[in-house]
Every structure is written in structure tokens, then in C-alpha cells.
Amino acid sequence: MNAMTEGLFLAPMAGVTNSIFRRICREKGADILTTEFVSADGIMHRNARTRGYVAFTEEERPIGVQLFGGDPERLAEASKQVIEWVNPNFIDINFGCPVNKVVCRHGGSSLLRDAPQLERVATAVVKACSPLPVTAKIRIGWDATSVNATHTAHILENTGIRRLAVHGRTKAQGYSGNADWEVIAAVAAAVSIPVIGNGDITDGATAIQRASSGVAGLMIGRAAMANPWIFTEVKAALTGQPFVPPTFEDRWNLVRRHCLEEIATRGEEKMAMQVMRGRLMAYTRGMPGARPLRGELSTVASLAQLDDLIASHLAEHAHTSPETYSAVSV
What we know:
The structure is a single chain. With about 325 residues, the chain is α/β, with parallel strands linked by helices. The chain folds into two domains: about 5-240, TIM Barrel; about 250-325, no CATH class. It has 15 helices and nine strands. Strands 1, 2, 3, 4, 5, 6, 7, 8 and 9 form a nine-stranded parallel beta sheet that branches. The longest helix has 19 residues, at about 250-265. The protein is globular and about 60 Å long.
């Protein structure tokens, strides 16, 4: 696959990348999966919610469990417990989450401005997990005045981190603005471990451009929320193969299947459909008539109601070409 050796990664996203969605993305071409992030404290308590976060099926392998926390000893112990509990293929440390409720607990991207503590955390986890590989995900820095991804990457490489994903935004940016792929390329050139680039990969064309930055793999997050076929499209682009966009019927069939699996997992249709509302609205991004459709999906409470919406949408847009999907106003 081009010069890349690590393939395509599904970015871990809280509230999105559960086992059902991970398996969907694997089917569409994602090579490496990672669970939603889990706090070290959550692992230590081993409650039912935590079990749901780290659970996966054998068909999802290779898969890692992503953890966050600021205390080296607790994160190391949590890592050992995860290995005993579910035996993942790797442990991933989250040094990139910009969400304040994580940062205020000295987790996620908070450690990007505390290099000594970041080093202590990574060292402790690598030692606790050996010989299981430990990977990490970072952002390029805390803000525009403190872009330190190359320095951070050197620290993590020296602790024994085996692979590094770099999101091309700062903590201060959140998910706004543009990802800085020049910084990602600089990190890839500066260390010997594989660097995975993340940020603003929206289609096959941008993937080809990003793959030329020297990264060993590409990580896709928000674009997959709306369109899991992006993995199929990117693989086709990187290998010079044709890509046939899914029809609207294909897309709605996948949406319905996702709902059915969520209902089966939760055992209660109304609850499952309420949980799926945000996911359903994401799936419509770029579809014709998406705005009014999202309004209706925000209150959907049953599979029958969803079926009516699907039938109405397909009838209304029967003659719209799927090739125009990404160009349609959201």
C-alpha cells in the first residue's frame, strides 16, 4: 500500500467507536482498531460500563485498548489489569484528548505541557506491559506557541513506545482549523518508530497527499463517522484501484444494520434508538436534504420510525447520483 507499512487506522472516538462500529469499519477496510479511551480509574474499578468500553470480538484483532490518566503507577497497574482482562494486541496511551474533563484530571493533552510527567507515564506503562507493545497518540502541542510534537516523539521513542499517532492540531484548536501535516511529516522524519498521521483525511485524494508525508500509516476519525466506506475509498486510491461509491440504499442498509446490532446488544429498542440518534445524524452528513433529515432523526424512537424515514428519503432522492454525496450541502 504505497510506501506505508502500517495501513489504515480507525481513530478511537468516545461515544462512537464501540465494537459494533469498529467491526463495520473493519469490513470497509480499516486495518487496525482501538477501543474508546478508558480512564485508569475506570479499569481499576472494573465496573459494567468499563467492561463495555474494553470489550471486543476476535474478528476485531489486531486491536488495542486506549487508556488515559496522569498517574504513572495507576496507569501502569490499569494496563496490567487490561491485559489480564481482555488480552488486547497492544495498549495505547492517550496523550492527545483536548476535552477539558480529561485535561483537568491531568490526562490526555494535558501531559503535552509536562514532558517529565509524560515520560514517567510512558516509561511506567511500557515496563508494566512488556512484552506487549505500547503505542501512543499525541497532538502537535498545547497551543500555537508550544508546538512540541517532535520533542515529545523523541521522549516517547526513548521510553519504548513502539508506534506513535500524531493528530495535526493543538489542544487549543480542538477540532477546528486545519491539521498541520508539515509538523506530522517532521515527526515522521525525526524518529525511527512508525508514525501514523491523523487529521483532515476526507477522501482518497487527500489520503494520497497525506501518505506522501513520510508517515507509516493513516488514521481516520470523524470522516468515518459519516462514511465508513472512506476506508475502502482510501485503499483503492492508494493502490490505484477504482472505487465505486455506495448507493444511498447501501448507506441506509448499513445504518439500519447498525441499529439492529445496537438493539440486539442493549436488549431494548427504545433505549438503543435513543443512543443511536447522534450516530444516525452523523451518517446523514453530506446526504441530500440532510438538515431536515437530521431534525427528524433527532427524535427517532423505533426501528419502524427509522424505516419510514429511510423509505421517504430514498423515494425523494431516487435520481440523485451517489457520486455527488460528498458535494451535497450538509
